[in-house]
Every structure is written in structure tokens, then in C-alpha cells.
């Protein structure tokens, strides 16, 4: 019954489309229709989740191969490159700074080599008591909670030097171990935050200090892959996205060390590629449709951050961020859930999109997992875009999430393909300009 109902719908849809194409023959050209079929979905997923790509980790050689593959698909689909880009890869770089050496004195006491950690975004830094004002001074006293004060200062938007009372030396060294990894940044200007374990009786109000920090800098090239279909209203954008990076090589389990990321997020990238082919084969849309796969989501979302700075977020009418749609949800196949459902009318539009369809969209069943904040939609939502992630993964019980077992074999290919089709169908009203989700209030997004 289900299969019958579904195929009837497909036939009606195809017929309608053929008629539209005939009309278009007299005016513009009409590309070959590209239905979303499980054969192509399978091919794409098999390629993206292959061992050869070694887990698609940002900064790896293999991720460039993945990006070139996606670019080739976008090219074949007939997408346009973003203005001023030579190809579909949207390259940018991030800098990594690792503290190599620190020296100086606090009062009369020379700085101990292990008495400091923090984030420094320049080749070297020189702070003295004479320059207070160009940076803020704070202290964490013996009777204060180190953890609470650390959290307060570590995300500071101002350059800050924090003197930590020597009573906190134990927890200080634990934090220091963790924060000895490099600080990464995409921007040239950033705020340095340095924690220093102060000697007994040192008081920055009364005693002079002089601090020099030297770093090692590494430059990394990264790239999103992006293309678009120009619409009649070219300043209104419907965005389909998924991150193409994953977590790379992990500790071996039964001889397998490659985290393939078949579900996370080869499934989402497969969807974006299929949607690109599908919509590009249709007559000129009312609104422009952008397709982007982000890099470095697993590393902190650098790809979506860079992308969001290259265009005007006010022009993005909706963002369909597709995350892990290769496994049926706990509620069963033919359903997908949407993060941040109540934050805009985007979710409601999807829920209402096909009342007679067996495919349903509903609110994220795992609010405690904070999934709205755990993917690239967050960056755009912060800018007011109705930006939501669509997923079907039973994340609370999935044994493969971020494991080397996230393999091609675990994916339900029919479910994946049906989900891509359902997303395509649910987006029609937004692409045609008939439906516009309400904006997300940026003030409510952390
Ligand atoms: Zn993911």
C-alpha cells in the first residue's frame, strides 16, 4: 500500500513536470528532469563513506578530494559558481597559534615556565604593568570558584590577563593541559586571554609585571563547496546545506580505525547533491536556491562561519541544514525531525507541506541534547535566519555515532532517498515564494 501510494504521487508529479517543460520549450530551454532516485543516492553515499577518504577530516589531503568530487557534481548539475569565485570550492584559511615559550616576571619573581596558559592570536605578545588599559586585568582569588571565574573570562570579548591565586595550582595545571592545544582563528584581530598562576602575595595593583609570550603559527587552508541556481528574485535565497567533514582516524576497533561518517554526514551531503541535480533540472525558480557543503563542522563550525560572512544573511529566507538522515528515526521510517522547531514557523511549514503524504516532519524529540546548537544552522540562526537542522537519526541509542562503525552498511538507503524526496517536496512552497518562514530572534540564540 505504502509503495503504491508513493509511486502514484511520483507519477503525478512527473506528469505535471512534463507539462511545465513542454511550455518552456517555446521560451527558455528545459533541462533533463532529474528525479531523486535511490541508485544515484547509493552511488553518492558509497563514494563519500569509502575508506579511501579516511574519515574526511578537515586539514587532511582526502578532504580536498571530497570537495573536488562535490564540486564536480555541482558542475554537472549546472549550478552557478558564487560571484568572484573561480570554482565551486570556497577557500579560506585559519591560523593556529600554539604557545611555544613564555618569560617575564611578576613582582620580583621570575615567571615559572609552567605558570601560564591561554589563547594568543599573534606571533608574540608583550604585556607589562605599564600598559594596563590596552588589556583588562582580573584575578581569581583563593576563596573564589576557579571553574566559574574561568568560564566567565575564557569567552571574554576583551583582551584579558587573569592572575590566578596559587591555591588553585592543581586545577590550574589540569586546565593548562587541556588548553595547551593550539588556538585557532579565522580573523586577523582577536582577543588574547591569558591565565597566569600568580606567586604568593603578588598583587597586580601594587607590583610591576612583565610578560612575553611567543607562539608557533600554522596556516591551514579550508574550503566549503557552494553553488547556486539564480531565481527571479535573486535577493531571496533558500539554502540547502550539510557538512562534508568528519572526524578522520580514531582508535582501532577490530582492526578498523576509519570513522567513515556514512550517516554523519555523508548522508546529508548526498542529499544536498541530489537536491542540486533535482532543482537545477527544473524551470527557473522564483527564489534563488543555494547549495553548500561546509567544512570543519566537527572542528567548531569554521566553514559555516566563513560562509555566513560572505553574503547578506537577511537575504536567506530559510536554511535547510541536513544532518544524519541515513537511519530511520525512533518514530519509524518516513519521518524526520527538526531542531529548534518552535523558534520559527519553518518546522510548521514542513509539517504542513504534504498532509496526504506518509512522510512526516515533527519537532526534535531530544531537546535535552541541544541539537539546535550542535550543527552549522546555529551560526546562521544567530544572524536571524530561520536556520534549522533536519535529521532522522536515533541519536540517543545510535551505537555508531562518532564511532568507526558509522559505515555504509548501516545506512537504510530507501529511507535516505525518501527523506531527500520529502525535503525536496517540503521546500516547494518556499522556493516558489508562496511560503516564508518567520525569522528567528537572534537575541534568543546563544
Ligand atoms: Zn554532523
What does this protein look like?
It is a single chain. The protein has helices at residues 2-25, 38-48, 61-77, 146-154, 169-178, 262-280, 302-309, 346-352, 377-381, 413-426, 428-431, and strands spanning 89-106, 109-110, 116-119, 124-128, 136-140, 160-164, 183-185, 193-197, 209-229, 233-243, 249-253, 256-258, 287-294, 316-322, 335-338, 360-363, 387-391. With 446 residues, it is an alpha/beta fold. It folds into 2 domains: 31-80 and 230-444, Zn peptidases (Aminopeptidase); 95-219, no CATH class. Strand 1 and strand 2 (109-110) form a beta hairpin. It is elongated, with a radius of gyration of 25 Å. 43% of the residues are buried. The site of zinc ion has 6 residues, from helix 6.
Which terms summarize this structure?
single chain; alpha/beta; Aminopeptidase; eleven-stranded mixed β-sheet; 11 helices
Tell me, what's the shape?
elongated
**What share of the residues lie within helices?**
25-40%
The number of distinct helices, counting runs of at least 4 residues, comes to 11
**Which consecutive residue ranges, at least 5 long each, have pLDDT under 50?**
1-30
CATH architecture descriptor text of the largest domain: 3-Layer(aba) Sandwich
Question: What does the largest sheet look like?
Answer: 11 strands, mixed
CATH class of the largest domain: Alpha Beta
Give the number of DSSP strands: 17
Amino acid at each position: 500500500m505504502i509503495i503504491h501510494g508513493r509511486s502514484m504521487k511520483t507519477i503525478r508529479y512527473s506528469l505535471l513536470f512534463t507539462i511545465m517543460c513542454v511550455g518552456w520549450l517555446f521560451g527558455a530551454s528545459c533541462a533533463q528532469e532529474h528525479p531523486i532516485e535511490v541508485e544515484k543516492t547509493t552511488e553518492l553515499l558509497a563514494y563519500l563513506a569509502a575508506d579511501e577518504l579516511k574519515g574526511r577530516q578537515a586539514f587532511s589531503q582526502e578532504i580536498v578530494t571530497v570537495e573536488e568530487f562535490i564540486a564536480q557534481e555541482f558542475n554537472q548539475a549546472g549550478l552557478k559558481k558564487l560571484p568572484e569565485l573561480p570554482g565551486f570550492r570556497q577557500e579560506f584559511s585559519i591560523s593556529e597559534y600554539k604557545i611555544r615559550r613564555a618569560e617575564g616576571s611578576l613582582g620580583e619573581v621570575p615567571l615559572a615556565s609552567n605558570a601560564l596558559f591561554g589563547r594568543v592570536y599573534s606571533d608574540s605578545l608583550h604585556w607589562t604593568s605599564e600598559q594596563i588599559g590596552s588589556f583588562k586585568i582580573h584575578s581569581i582569588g583563593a576563596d573564589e570558584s576557579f571553574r566559574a571565574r574561568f568560564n566567565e573570562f575564557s569567552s571574554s570579548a576583551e583582551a584579558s590577563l587573569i592572575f590566578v591565586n596559587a591555591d588553585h595550582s592543581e586545577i590550574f595545571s589540569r586546565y593548562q593541559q587541556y588548553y595547551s592545544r593550539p588556538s585557532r582563528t579565522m580573523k586577523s584581530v582577536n582577543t588574547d586571554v591569558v591565565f597566569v598562576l600568580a606567586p604568593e602575595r603578588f598583587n597586580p595593583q601594587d607590583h610591576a609585571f612583565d610578560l612575553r609570550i611567543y607562539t608557533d603559527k600554522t596556516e591551514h587552508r579550508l574550503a566549503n563547496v557552494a553553488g547556486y541556481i539564480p531565481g527571479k528574485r535573486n535577493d531571496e535565497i533558500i539554502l540547502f546545506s550539510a557538512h562534508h567533514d568528519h572526524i578522520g582516524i580514531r582508535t582501532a576497533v577490530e582492526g578498523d580505525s576509519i570513522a567513515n561518517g556514512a550517516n554523519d554526514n555523508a548522508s546529508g551531503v548526498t542529499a544536498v547533491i541530489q537536491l542540486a541535480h533535482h532543482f537545477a533540472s527544473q524551470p527557473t525558480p522564483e527564489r534563488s536556491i543555494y547549495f553548500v557543503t561546509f567544512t570543519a563542522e566537527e572542528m567548531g563550525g569554521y566553514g559555516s562561519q566563513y560562509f555566513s560572512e560572505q553574503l547578506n544573511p537577511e537575504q536567506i529566507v530559510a536554511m535547510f541544514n541536513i544532518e544524519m538522515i541515513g537511519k530511520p528515526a525512533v518514530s519509524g521510517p518516513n519521518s524526520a525531525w527538526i531542531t529548534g522547531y518552535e523558534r520559527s514557523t519553518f518546522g510548521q511549514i514542513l509539517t504542513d507541506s504534504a498532509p496526504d503524504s506518509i512522510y512526516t516532519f515533527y519537532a526534535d524529540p531530544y531537546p535535552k541534547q541541544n541539537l539546535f546548537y550542535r550543527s552549522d544552522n546555529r551560526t546562521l540562526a544567530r544572524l536571524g535566519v530561520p536556520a534549522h537542522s533536519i535529521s532522522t537519526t536515533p541519536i540517543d541509542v545510535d551505537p555508531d555515532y562518532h564511532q568507526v562503525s558509522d559505515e555504509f552498511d548501516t545506512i537504510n538507503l530507501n529511507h535516505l532517498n525518501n527523506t531527500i524526496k520529502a525535503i525536496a517536496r517540503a521546500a516547494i512552497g518556499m522556493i516558489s515564494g508562496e511560503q516564508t518562514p518567520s525569522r528567528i530572534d537572534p537575541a534568543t540564540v546563544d
